[in-house]
Task: structure prediction
Amino acid sequence: MKIIKVLLVSLLLLGVTNAQAANAYLGLGIGESFVDQGIFGEMDTAYKLFGGFQFHPNFALEAAYMDLGQPVEDFFGFRQEYDVWATALWVKGVLPVTKTVELFGKLGMAHWEYDKVSQIGSLPPTTSSESSTDFAWGIGVAFAVNEKLMIPVEYEHISGDIDKAAMFSVSVLYQF
Result:
């Protein structure tokens, strides 16, 4: 876990300090998460903080922290609450379509964790936690507002020990 945090902070700092050498960027996004770990999949509001640098017109490195919310499952008195978050490192492929629109895809790894509280009726709740580092991917489109500001719309997916965790988001991205 510590290595993921160190890599995330290092990548963000590297991107900011090398802003002149590469197109560094920071962004903030909000959206909807889908977590499928219990009886059914549940959705909640999610947000993310991300940054990176585009070292080539078609390639970038990106790191993100994603708070995937606190989805709740309630099925005839059986209740499960999750608190889910992830950090991710991506290699991002960029395909400019026009001067103001670009398509992109991301491949990488995500470290995710969740805390779960389960309760049946009026019995005392039980808690559990799980974490893992798994394959992650994403796709999206970004719209340029001006030379420094972009609006990415994207879908990100984490596969692995957790059945599925995904986020659909709209972000504001500032390029240095």
User: Anything to note?
Assistant: The radius of gyration is 18 Å.
